[in-house]
Amino acid sequence: MHEDQMTSVEASQTELVQALKEAHDEIRDLREQMAEMRWIETALRRRTGELGERVKELDCLFAIADCLRAQRASLDAVLQAIADTIASGYQAPGRTWVELFVFGRRFRSSEFRESAHTDSCTIFAAGRDAGRVRVFVLPLDPSAGTAAFLKEERALLRAVALWVGLIVEHRDANGMAWAVAKAVAVPGNGMEPNERDSAAL
């Protein structure tokens, strides 16, 4: 083989090696970009889910505010409406149930049931312990090891308990407590034991 031909072959080999190196570098860069895009996509999905939960919680608070503004509705009707509304602010409304105790009166959401996963908050009216609001949930995947309640849901429950206390106080909580106290004093009034305990708060 002539010297010129050998030089040409060596040059071609060098160019081929360089081209392969550049191709390898491009593939590596593409893989890094794809990994970054997957991370961004995952982060966006997670963030979108979180924002969706915040929207649900805000919608729940707006709906409860509407209940509180129902001036012509009785206090019992308002409290029942609130009990029926609270679940809408949680991750799985169809697997969430609510129970309100206010001065011995109990208000439960539709198709109420208890579960092992529960959160509760005391209701105060005029500085007095007026009862409590309890939420029961059935997690979508109990084996996942995730918290049954988000911290924002716990904050939502505290806000609801505060609002319920204010509306009870505004709607003459003392008069309501007196009515329950008189009912408890009458033998055979049909009140359940836990209702009597709550009335004594």
Number of spatially distinct domains: 1
Q: Give the spatial strand order of the biggest sheet.
A: 2-1-4-3
Uncertain segments: 181-201
- Overall, the morphology is rod-shaped
CATH topology: Beta-Lactamase
What is the annotated CATH architecture? 2-Layer Sandwich
Q: State the helix count.
A: 5
Distance between the termini: 106 Å
Count of beta strands:
4
Share of β-strand residues: 5-15%
Which series of helices and strands comes N to C? HHEEEEHHH
Largest sheet: 4 strands, antiparallel
Helix content, binned percent:
55-70%
Commentary on this structure:
- 58% of the residues lie in helices and 15% in strands.
- It contains five helices and four strands.
- The chain has a four-stranded antiparallel β-sheet with strand order 2-1-4-3.
- Helix 1 runs antiparallel to helix 2 (75-85).
- Mean pLDDT is 77; it is low at 181-201.
Q: Topology of this protein?
A:
Layout: H1 3-68, H2 75-85, E1 96-102, E2 105-108, E3 117-125, E4 128-137, H3 151-170, H4 173-185, H5 193-199
Helix pairs in contact: 1-2, 1-3
List keywords for this structure.
201 residues; rod-shaped; disordered C terminus; 4 strands; Beta-Lactamase; 5 helices; four-stranded antiparallel beta sheet; alpha+beta
Provide a quick synopsis of the model.
This protein is an alpha+beta fold and 201 residues long. It has helices spanning 3-68, 75-85, 151-170, 173-185, 193-199, and strands at 96-102, 105-108, 117-125, 128-137.
